[in-house]
Amino acid sequence: MNAPQLKPQREYSRHIHLLYVPTLGCNLGCSYCYLGDQTTRNTLKKDAARATATLRHALDAFEAAGVLAFNVSLHGGEVTTMPPAVLEELFTLIRGYYMGHFDALSALGQPKSVPHIKTNLYRFAPLYDLFVKHKVSISASIDLPLALHAKHRTTRGGASWLDKTLENLRLLARYPHAKKISATLCEEHLADIPAIIDDIWFIHRELGFDMNRFNVMFAFESALNETHEVSKGKSPLTQASPAKQMELYRALNEAFAGTELEEGLRRNWFDEFKPSYCTSAFNCGERFFLLQSDGSVYSCVRGQGLEELHYGNVFTDSVEQILATGARKVSALHQAQGFDSSCQSCGHLRLCRTGCPAVKLQMKSAKSYTCELQKALYTDNPRSFPEDPPEAQQDYARWYARNMHPRLAFAEAPPPRPGVLLPNDLYQEKNTLPALIAEDETLQALYSHEAFVLEMGEERLPLSSQLLKRERSVFTLTKEDRLRLHVRKELFQKACPEPIRNTLYLQLLRDTPVIYGDEKRTKQEHLFTYQLHFHCLEPSDSLGEEYVMADLGGILHLHRSLYLPQVSNNLFVTTQYLREYHYQKQKNNAFYHIQAINLPFQNFEFFYVP
Question: Does a structural domain hold residue 171?
Answer without folding.
Answer: no
